[in-house]
Amino acid sequence: MATDRREDWRDVGAADELARQPVSEVVVDRTRLAITHTAGEFGAISGVCNHVGGPLGKGFLDGDYVVCPWHAYKFHRRTGEGEPGFEDDRVPSHDVRVVDGRVQVRLAPKTPRHKKPHAPHPLTLIKPRGEEGGPPRDAPLRVVGISTTVMAKDLPRESTSDFLLGVALERAKARGAETRLILLRELRFRACEGYYSKSERACTWPCSITQMDPNDQLDRVYEAIVGWADVFLIATPIRWGNASSLYFKMAERMNCVQNQITIANRVLMRNKVAAFIITGGQDNVQGVAGQMLTFFGELGCTFPPFPFVGHSRGWDAEDMENNVAHVERSEELRKGVHGLVERALDLAHVLIEHPVSHARVPRGGRKAHALAPRGGGEPAGE
């Protein structure tokens, strides 16, 4: 006779042991549960968060709410309901009892899972060039320039990388391209908070920060380089032999783009052309370029021949005001930037007519080991 799951009580552990901590994760027949104990009372809800399947049983209590350790979504420890204002977003709750010093949970949930409908995030609606909803294949090329130079807004200064980026965008316009300029220093965005370090699946697209914080402005960068642009030009000064700190702050937040390849074999940036402008009073142009080429290559970008313009007057050139004047007067650098833009635009035209980047890539040789299937409980959700 089949088991009546309404009476399917299962032993999940000794009461005195489970009472030692406010939240415990237990797995019964591949069903993950979050067992709570506070004020002498046990509670049991699903151990799978509604957001992206985070482990509620590894979270913590905030009053009567279990807080997911991945993205801090909250669910009532007995009813499974979301926190005030989000009650319609709830995880299953389960009957729980103590018999002879053992905690028992009824596996059949007494309340169902319910995900409150949300409008799709705009970043999930991006359509590539040539696809329905995207720009036509024959529309003008789109070029975005991204400045990573840091400076005080109320005390601006000359910037060699910004100057050459301006030269580049002027040339792109002269070629008939649409252009945008993004100054990272004018955007307010949080640093990467390391969700990937909790779990590869905790790093989401769109970025978890972007989803949770409507005031975070890095969505403008995501929209530009994942969606809008065919070509993007990244300009950076050299700071102690590296790209600027603002560049790395942006790059760390781009992990959510690369991570989609890791967890879903999904390439978000296809047939995109990247090129770089690297200037500074100190040397190590090749080192900075090497990092940038590797990073954007791992995002799926393609590079034109000779993909960067670099300028440095060396370690001992401390007369920075002369460095600025040198760059602004240099016809060689201006011609070099013009050539960089020409090569990038030419390659973008080729990629539109003959795409070489695909929605998926073989894992062997870059991310060779597929992730183990998720086990234990309900699907993670969207």
Word description of this protein:
This protein has helices at 15-18, 160-174, 195-198, 208-212, 219-228, 245-253, 255-264, 285-298, 320-329, 331-353; strands at 9-14, 23-28, 31-38, 41-46, 60-62, 65-67, 74-76, 96-99, 102-106, 142-147, 178-183, 231-237, 273-280, 308-312. It has two domains: 9-106, Rieske Iron-sulfur Protein; 122-353, Rossmann fold, CATH 3.40.50.360. It has 382 residues and is an alpha/beta fold. Helix 8 links the parallel strand 13 and strand 14 (308-312). 27% of the residues lie in helices and 20% in strands. The strands form four sheets. A five-stranded parallel β-sheet has the order 11-10-12-13-14, with helices on both faces. It has a three-stranded antiparallel β-sheet with strand order 1-9-8. A three-stranded antiparallel β-sheet has the order 2-3-4, with no helix packed on it. Helix 2 packs across helix 10. It is built from ten helices and 14 strands.
Topology:
Layout: E1 9-14, H1 15-18, E2 23-28, E3 31-38, E4 41-46, E5 60-62, E6 65-67, E7 74-76, E8 96-99, E9 102-106, E10 142-147, H2 160-174, E11 178-183, H3 195-198, H4 208-212, H5 219-228, E12 231-237, H6 245-253, H7 255-264, E13 273-280, H8 285-298, E14 308-312, H9 320-329, H10 331-353
Parallel strand pairs: 10-11, 10-12, 12-13, 13-14
Antiparallel strand pairs: 1-9, 2-3, 3-4, 5-6, 6-7, 8-9
